[in-house]
Amino acid sequence: MLTEEASLLATVQSAADGDVSKCKGGEVYKRCLKVLAKLLSMHHSKMLMFDVDPDVLPTYYDIVADPLSLAQIARELLTCAYGMVDSTSDSSCEEVHPVVATFYRRTRLVVLNCLTFNTEITLIVAHAQKLLTTLTRFTAHWCIGRTAGASPDGIPAGPPSMDACVDTSCFLTHTPIDAPSGRKNAEHIVGVRCARCTAQFSIEG
Length: 205
What we know:
By secondary structure, the chain is mostly helical. The protein has helices spanning about 5-15, 25-40, 60-65, 70-80, 100-115, 125-145, and strands at about 185, 190.
């Protein structure tokens, strides 16, 4: 039997990997779901997945004005709660899509609530900060992409293809990472040492 955490991740991952034509919210929702699936796959997210139990933390709801969890973000994405998408809109335009902006703002609030309640440097604070870094990087690369004129190497403006929105594709070139090209340490390859992202091929991940 799946745990609650595993079940939530499986649901989000399935929706993110499904046929875009069957997603009523369109590609922009699927991109946000891919970012959320990335967050949920990290062990750092475990304590922020579900609503805080008031019996465990009785003062939480007195301090946090707008409680929110990653599970709630998932429900909002799966039900297209951020509005429907104009199918004629250009995904490569420089303006941030309102669905992406709402997703980022809402998910960031989950982290900020954690930092507001936990005022001391604790493990959960470190985990929340790691999630915020990952959220920002993956939203920027998978949902927004390069702005026009910022790509001297010929990579087009806008986000990468849906197929490139995976841990094993480079953020900068949108091409697959060749694992054997990573830095070698004695007998083992320990990963690409560019340290520009938190993907699984980076030693900073």
